[in-house]
Amino acid sequence: MNRIKTATVAACFSVTANIIINKLIESGTQVVAFGRKGDVVRAKQLEEQYQGRLTILLGDLSNEEESKALIANALDILGSIEAHYHCSGLFTWSHWKDVAVNQVETVFNANFMTAFVFGREVYNVMEQQGRGAIMFVSARDTVRNVSAGFGPYMASKMALNGLVESMAAEGAEHGIKINAILPTVVDTQVNRDAMPDVDPTSWVNPTEMAELMIELTQPTKTNLSGSLIVVNAKMH
Q1: What residue spans define the domains of the chain?
Q2: Residues 93/185, Cβ–Cβ less than 8 Å
Q3: Span 36-52, pLDDT tens digits
Q4: From the CA atom positions of the chain, what is the Rg in Å?
Q5: Does the pLDDT value for residue 94 go beyond 90?
Q6: Residue 137: which residues within 8 A CB-CB, separation 6 or more?
Q7: I need a surface site. Which of 52, 119, 182, 224 has the fewest CB within 10 A?
Q8: Residue 215 pLDDT
Q9: What is 6-231's CATH topology?
Q10: Which pTM was predicted?
């Protein structure tokens, strides 16, 4: 049973975020979601699907001032933020010996800096409330040996893991639960197109992952925080 009344979702046009938004709204949650600047047409189209139960705000989640403004706007709409789902992320396959410096900056910006900068603003709201839950998305192989070619991507996700564990420790006294899901390859059309020769039957089902993320942010899950939750494949 969903007991979350208000929630925010980052990277609202991603597959997993879309599913989270739909499931939350279907079960009665009021949602504010965030997308990139300039994505006005898609934002309007997505809002229209939910007839006033979803508001989409556009901005740079790695920019501190914009993040502060976005969260203030979200609070004006929602009144509180009981749960936040941070689905922002970018995959890259490259070797350390020849990856461009700006490419590393880009992947760290998407995978770590948005989580730190925007996540901190969410955290500050929840600290004032005395409660809340934040769920991030990392990667399974951050807790295994990292293969060649996955270095820059996994390094950014390892930084995210450190943020999750240490921010959870800081939030414990304030009733804030912070965790991360660590999936393998998520079964999306983009991934199928990128890896046409790989069998997707063992990939993580995005609907199942979204359902797990919502379940783990329920107020009833009071003892779960600072966890890196590995999802290896389909759960059913």
Answers
A1: 6-231
A2: no
A3: 999 999 999 999 999 89
A4: 17
A5: yes
A6: 16, 86, 87, 89, 180, 181, 183, 213
A7: 52
A8: 96
A9: Rossmann fold (3.40.50)
A10: 0.95
